Amino acid sequence: MIRDWSNFIGGRTAVVTGSGAGVGRAIAIQMARAGATVWVNDLHLDRAERVVDEIRAEGLTAEPVVGDVTDWDSVQQMRSATGPVDIVVNNAGSGVRFFGEGGARLVSFAESRPDEWDPIMRVNLAGVLYVTHTYLASMLEQQWGRVLTIISDAGRRGERNQVVYGAAKAAAAGFTRGLAVEVGRAGVTVNCLSLGSIRHADMARHLDEHPEREALLTRPYPMGRLGRVDDPAPLAVLLCSDAAEWITGQVYPVDGGYAPAL
What we know:
Blueprint: E1 13-16, H1 22-33, E2 37-42, H2 45-57, E3 62-66, H3 72-82, E4 87-90, H4 114-142, E5 145-152, H5 153-156, H6 163-183, E6 188-195, H7 201-209, H8 211-218, H9 233-239, E7 251-254
Parallel strand pairs: 1-2, 1-4, 2-3, 4-5, 5-6, 6-7
Helix pairs in contact: 1-9, 3-4, 4-6, 7-8
């Protein structure tokens, strides 16, 4: 592990979507620790401000920005607030909810309803397109940029009862590969991190109450545990640095060995 992150992406500006909690929060904090000025995006200002306060408490630089990645006009307003950035992390997303209320139902595709598909496709695919398109022009103009999208092994491997979610994440990976070919000569790299199950929020609370279920969920993971929200953050920083200038169009699993890439 890199021990001194203090200037790894120093002088860069990043926007991390959906970073008011969870994996996005961890990536935003790690990017700030690596020297970047970070725009913490969330649907809710109070959530973004809490993360910004955490970052500033370490003497680092961050600003909150509200925006709905599924709404084109909202993304344009977000761009007006942030100005051009060097790094875009497309983290905002949602899918089926195994634990807690809300989100898409955990059912087979045959049992799902068409009205349930659109919200999943909008946040996990359209949101990636909207945000990337909005910030890409300035990256091309300055001949340097990093686009990193968080996807899921549901899209890379396939998972029952997550068919539409997996389709959206697989499409985001396909978008990544295609865009990488288009913009590589302009000094812009485009990659994905593909995550396994991350133990946080409703899942963490549920497993604290039912530890026997955690043992079942953990069984397919060679590392012997579920993911933590900060597991993807170091690789996210690396892929958004100068050190990764010859890495593009790739999908990197951060999943404890659940679904090896080779």
